[in-house]
């Protein structure tokens, strides 16, 4: 064979192999909010998911030797846009999706159930946990393909209320403590409202009428004055960090003395810097066992992942980034399970992959990701809620988040870990 | 192509009023429809989804065009009526178990009645004042959606059922497309015919010069309010079709930005043009997808790295839509409909365009 023919032959072989190799890539959808109402927390979470999936491709060549083809899409927190993008992904035959908000996740429940596509959301609405649809609660549909990493909004609030009841005793409070739910009139802040108020009443709190403030930053002095005049002791903040900061600052100015309880998206290191001393003392659930800067066996892996988008390795990663990494790894390992048994990667097999382990911590993430357990009836991955307190001791206007955390001006202080009972009554609620 | 001979050969009012001027234009329309009906054979679900969106939004945009383009009124609350239709259809089905096929026109009628109520100020107000009155409609209805648990399911939204007729269930893009095509044909023919009636001409007269219209004996308050009713009917039917396509309706979707988007469709498509409404909605649906595709190509490329765009690429789409509207206002204030006419006449007269 002449060299020229060899070359031609090689080129022809390459031409045949190249598309075949391209087909081997596993399409995965990634819905993110980088420009909408919840982009304050959507950006770090989405970055965490994207970096982790890129790291999976780079470090272990994807799933069973087939790299992931991650199809990212910024939907600006608009549910209809998410639905139309879902149709596009359906065309590309994605086998699983990393999702985001409450409204779009709930809009897509029926679609992903119909098309059998596992959907790992950033929405922790308890309504998504009733996988078998057996709770019989009004408005709760079976969601066998919906998963999320961490405690549901309701369980997060239940844990904080249990802590608050103890806290009231240790502080030697007199009479009944007063509890109030605060947040926008929107599915996401509303999701744990009824569950929280019911438990608060049970634990001996006096439940005050809920206070509404919008999901966008604004002047919430009126809300703070209401808090003050009602004499609330514990207030739940149901929104994302941006608008919560407005409330915290307004309440600091108004001189309100109340213990704020944030939700998982309601507080983070960036919000602490923005709110400054006003954020001092806020208690909120953290989904990972450690935060950035602490040490655990799995932190080495996380630092590698962080280098995907930050070659210097100096970036400070907020709690949402780490939660995003854990959420992405749950999906990756479920896909491993689906492909390990020698089978095709279908949505149904990936879903079954989520059920394969008990007390599931992704490999290499020990001490970072909290253990999760999913069953065909119950998609409450965890009922163990780690509570942290935001501690701000000085001026946060100077220096980056990394520097402030390093110098100790801002700290995330572990408060307690609450283990909630896994009861049927609270499923889907 | 409607290849008409030079000169005006029309000798009766009937010929003057026809929607399709030549036999060929009628044939082209029928052929186009037939081609559209075979779309599920060669288009994927994503493209079909875009077509369905163009159809549902196009119906609502036509309603707004009747109000803005033909009657010369203004509304910045069109999305609220669109939403009312969506919720009404979902509610009619869930509460009264009316078949979805019947719910859609009923929802249109309910929305028309609501539109008449909110259109009442139009009998007295003009220009900016009317705009503010319709803004009120937007906020009142949005607040109603968020609070009326019995009607809308509150802020959590409401799950809707797919369209079914007899034993045929249109729960996929391939089947739902036919429902939308049927509604688009009926609603567009109705609008084109409306403009040939006395009432339709009265609406145009109100737009062209309200004082002259009144002198000619046209009841201004009546026709202005009627126009709101018709616009709401179209919005309601569009909204109902949207609800049974997405199978989920939530108050979040029907905000003021969406209202402005409807105005954008009408302006880009061409004020006072029936077909322009469809072109405008097609433009507004397809443009973000095209920009998105461009942004996907751009992200990670050399340009991205050189300019350090990163996450800012996400905002490209929003800016592109804004820029498109501005450019249209400057370079083509009569919209896509006029551009289409120019293209047609270019070919008709080719090669002697002068």
TrEMBL record, chain A:
Keyword field: Amino-acid transport, Signal, Transport
Domain of life: Bacteria
InterPro entries: BCAA_transport, Leu-bd, Peripla_BP_I
Signal sequence region: 1-22
Chain ranges of the Leucine-binding protein domain: 26-390
Pfam family, one: Peripla_BP_6
GO biological process per UniProt: amino acid transport
Family label: Belongs to the leucine-binding protein family.
PANTHER family: BLR7848 PROTEIN, LEUCINE-SPECIFIC-BINDING PROTEIN
Descriptive protein name: Amino acid/amide ABC transporter substrate-binding protein, HAAT family
Record organism: Belnapia rosea
From TrEMBL, chain B:
Membrane topology per record: Multi-pass membrane protein
GO function terms (MF aspect): branched-chain amino acid transmembrane transporter activity
InterPro entries the record matches: ABC_transp_permease (IPR001851), LivM-like (IPR043428)
Keyword line: Cell membrane, Membrane, Transmembrane, Transmembrane helix
Protein name, as recorded: Amino acid/amide ABC transporter membrane protein 2, HAAT family
GO CC annotation terms, alphabetical: plasma membrane
Top-rank taxon, per record: Bacteria
Ranges in coiled-coil conformation: none
Primary localisation category: membrane
Compartments in which it is found: Cell membrane
Organism of provenance: Belnapia rosea
Spans traversing the lipid bilayer: 27-44, 50-68, 75-92, 98-120, 127-146, 175-194, 265-287, 307-331
Pfam families xrefs: BPD_transp_2
